[in-house]
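Table S2 (continued). Query chain:
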Amino acid sequence: MDTLTLIKQAHQGDKTARDKVLTDNTALIWSIVRRFLNRGYEGEDLFQIGCIGMLKAIDRFDLEYNVAFSTYAVPLITGEIRRFLRDDGIIKISRSIKENQNKIIAETEKYRETYHLEPTIEQLAEICSLSKEDVVTAIESLRSVESIYKEVDSSSDGNGVSILDKLVDKTNNENLVIDRVLIKQLLDTLEEKERNIIILRYYKNKTQSDIAKEIGITQVQVSRLEKKILNKLKNQINF
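Corresponding output:
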């Protein structure tokens, strides 16, 4: 039986179907848990917290969403674990992770100066003689959810606006920690042109006029497209 059918049954009160979805997704939960290992907590404990996030995802998932269940579930699982670590105390970062962070920072700067590009995870792993998982863990520990909370717009009154402000109505999500993984996955659902506009606008801080010149359309068209794309993304995030 497919996942969506099981979720539909779970919404109708079928506990067996709910448990089946949870069991079928244990690998997904563990893949997220592994990102938080070596921080002073047992993997099994974090897995149990991740299961809580998965159950919330099952209960809240709207079958009308035009998004894969796993895409929806990832930020809820991650948010539940982050909340546990935050509420339980300061996240413990091991010495080895800190050493990896320092190495990655140094090599990243060298790479930028040499090639004028950002190195990929694979390139950093090779340069630093680390596994890709170690690189991801170090980077995640270093910058956490920076990209989604990073201020991308500033108004005349000095109040900045983040990507999260653009995509989520926070008044209804006070207790939700949204991982930047969701944004990446949502961007992957966009067409190339749409994705390029969002990256230029919110990650490279380009003005609408700059984007218009770069992709060969008018500023008005960019404005309309931007609004359309943001609405499209908002419709996929309704926790």
